[in-house]
Amino acid sequence: MTSSLREETASLLVLLIFSVGFxxxxxxxxxxxxxxxxxxxxxxxxxxxxxxxxSTGENLITGTQSDETGTxxxxxxxxxxxxxxxxxxxxxxxxxxxLEAGEIRDFPEIILEQSPESLDDIDIEAERSQMQLDFDKxxxxxxxxxxxxxxxxxxxxxxxxxxxTDIEGNVSLRGSEGxxxxxxxxxxxxxxxxxxxxxxxxxxxxxEIEVITNPSARYEAEGSAGIINIILKKNEExxxxxxxxxxxxxxxxxxTSSSLNYRVNNINWFLNTSIDYDADSRSSWSFQRYSSxxxxxxxxxxSSSEDWEIDGNIRFGADFYLTTRQTLTASVAMDxxxxxxxxxxxxxxxxxxxxxxxDVRRNxxxxxxxxxxxxxxQYENLIDEDEHALTADFDIDISIEKERSDLNEIIEEGxxxxxxxxxxxxxxxxxxxxxxxxxxxxxxxxxxxxxxxSSYEYLENEFVAEExxxxxxxxxxTFNDNFTYHEIVNAAYGIFSTRFGKFSTQLGLRxxxxxxxxxxxxxxxxxxx
Length: 529
Fold this sequence. Notes:
Largest sheet: 13 strands, antiparallel
Radius of gyration: 33 Å
Number of strands: 28
Number of helices: 3
Strand content: over 45%
């Protein structure tokens, strides 16, 4: 071994010893509790629940379970805790503990006494989709319906009575498309148009569907056919939990989604993601023949189309448990969608003798790019019980949509001039919403509800159409314009509901102020209400 090599080796050993000495104190600062849980027969109790609360005993901090041998180990921060241990058919165990930094408190033998109460019968119930009736709505509990596993919101809606969807994903309620779609009781520019956006909402994120065919004073005066409210799941289980789903369909559908949450101390983090790819091809053929005393002709049309779209969304946020009954939730969501559609159509006009008069081929190409961003903050206070509550929320919703189309019409045979046109359409929308709702039961049969809300919406749509003339693009002034729309809505409502035996009644009053301002910038035309 050379002198330089020995020096390098010695240097590495010194560095290693220094590193171990440097990091050892931090490793020694680990703070935790451990122990073994037994019954009176000194047999281990597996899978007992070990939970730690703050010094008041009201707020859950963290927890774990004992293993098959009754042993547990739980890391904690230094501080004062209430240790709570429980298991089915055993008395609960509680003890106040104080931990210092670096302390590992060991409970070598915790004995749980047998509970005097016994379980005579055990009922096992499977979760299933079901319908519930309320004053002004029907609630469809999605549950774990196998027909929607790996599917989207469209698949869930297809299983709800009185709701139908077509091949394009458009939603109808009792045969009418004049339906309003809400997400968690609020409008959303991402999903309000139904169709493609709802295909990007995974079914496993949906808790229930509310079908409101007779909207009360709580809702704005929109949706002639009724309201469909999609309630999303809110996983709050302790620790890290989640699920991932994937699906594939023919001829070209691929999708994957995930729903994850991580709860530690008084914060529950959640993350929902999905991505969906759909490709489709179609073709059609039609022929018409008309003959009369003064005119006769034949007409033939062939068309084919190829379209595909990809849609992805992500929602990230956290629930902050201020107290056992007060929760503050903040979240951000983003949805991105891109779509292309290419269509070729051949039109052929013929004489009754089957001679071609004119043969035209039309090529249409359309691409669409849409982005939606949403920020939401919600406060919930369960004052006495679930039916006595105060909620308030504020959200900002920004949507930008761009669409471009190219049209090329070629005369294959006969007279006529070729046509080359293109259009661009850009639409942006910004919404601000603030709402507060209060409900309180007066008795087992009656309750009151009240609330206020205010919203502001700004929409701008710019449409440009051009045509190629003499190898130059010329604006078509008849079609070009820029449209703006402003809307301000302020409202307050009050509702009294009660039951008389098998009959239920609801009396509500809503006061609403709506200010609308529209304008076509090129012509200066507009309206103000």
